Amino acid sequence: MKEPFKIKNIAHLQLILASQSPRRKELLSKLGLDFKTQNVDVEEDFPASLQREEIVEFLAKKKADAFPIKPQQLVITADTIVWHENQLFGKPKDIADAKAMLRQLSGHTHEVFTGVGLTTTHKQRIFSVRSEVRFAPLSDEEIDYYIDTYRPLDKAGAYGIQEWIGFVGIEAISGSFWNVMGLPIQRLYQELRNF
Amino acid sequence: MKEPFKIKNIAHLQLILASQSPRRKELLSKLGLDFKTQNVDVEEDFPASLQREEIVEFLAKKKADAFPIKPQQLVITADTIVWHENQLFGKPKDIADAKAMLRQLSGHTHEVFTGVGLTTTHKQRIFSVRSEVRFAPLSDEEIDYYIDTYRPLDKAGAYGIQEWIGFVGIEAISGSFWNVMGLPIQRLYQELRNF
Predict the structure, then answer these.
(1) Domain coverage including residue A23
(2) End-to-end alpha-carbon separation of chain B, Å?
(3) Has residue B141 been placed in a domain?
(4) Minimum CA–CA partner of A193 in chain B
(5) Is residue B111 assigned to a domain?
(6) How many domains does chain A have?
């Protein structure tokens, strides 16, 4: 066990990750900070006029505002979407929808946005990070294999960059890799230091 | 355990990863292929006239040519370097050298090259992949903490992107993330399919 690096200005606050995503939990744990997780249950709907980062910032704030926050707590909320050709790719409805999503992403570059909220009883900071992801052309055989084997129905855009399809199908990214996994950890670290 | 996706054209060959890097072993295992590892021991020197991808392609070939290959084997060799301001950043000599390297990379964008060799008794394919990595400005406190705690003396450029410094210090990458970890797995998959 390594001695963790302390972020002094938030050392007096109890850090809470308000997300059930095991990927976010794993990423936050890499900073070496003490935190606990506590789920917040909200409808993930938003005004239809919103686009791109507006959506994830709205949802990060909505989750934060629904959280039963207590004094001395710092709550981290987050929401991630895939955006491609002016269209939102959220979690697929079913296997057929998941395959249709991957066929649309195949051979193209799409955007991934994660919105993050940092909230105490006194203060709130909402920000978002954008990454680009370029998929190689995927064969129907590869798409069918991935969707049928991994069943990524809990993942925005129907893929996990850290799963088989990410290894064989993603040619390049531009921006934060961790953002694509669901939490822009380097920016989060900077924001925590400046909170 | 997921049923692996088969790469038909190499299904008759025994795959061997000629590297002791646990990171390369982990990455190759993500393709779901059967393989074993076997070390190849060579001096990692090269002509001083070589630069950038020439260095890693030379070393991937040198490692391949030194491997005691047998019929029906397909040997994967690899070499990774960090290149910054016309200078090679290999494995640091000691802790002081590691800190000096990170101070030079701090606040700048550098290049990472990995050269890969695919070799049988009949055929050889050498290729390389380039990624860009942008470090945020790192404080001396952060550099000292990382180097003293993680002691990355086995890592080109004195950092592992999958370690604490990668989470807090790397603002963005451009290209293959896995390449920065030591094996450009998506390109390798394509090359194996076309081998």
Answers:
(1) 8-193
(2) 27
(3) yes
(4) B168
(5) yes
(6) 1
The count of CB pairs under 8 A between chains A and B is: 79
Q: Which of B43, B1, B45, B40 is nearest to B24 (CA)?
A: B40
Integer Rg of chain B from CA: 17
pLDDT along chain B (195 residues), means of 10: 84 95 93 93 94 97 97 97 94 96 98 98 98 97 95 93 94 95 95 95
To which residue do tokens 């290149």 refer? B83
Out of B3, B142, B177, closest to residue A177 by CB: B177
Side-chain half-sphere CA neighbours of A43 within 13 A? 3
Give the separation between CA A185 and CA B154, rounded to whole angstroms: 25
State whether the Cα torsion B61-B65-B68-B71 is positive or negative.
Answer: positive
* CATH code at position A172: 3.90.950.10
Percentage of the residues of chain A whose pLDDT score is greater than 90: 90
Q: Kindly state whether B186 is in contact with chain A, defined as any CB-CB distance less than 8 angstroms.
A: yes
Q: Is residue B35 part of a domain?
A: yes
A96 at the B interface (CB within 8 A)? Answer: no
Q: Is residue A150 part of a domain?
A: yes
Does B3 contact chain A (CB < 8 Å)?
yes
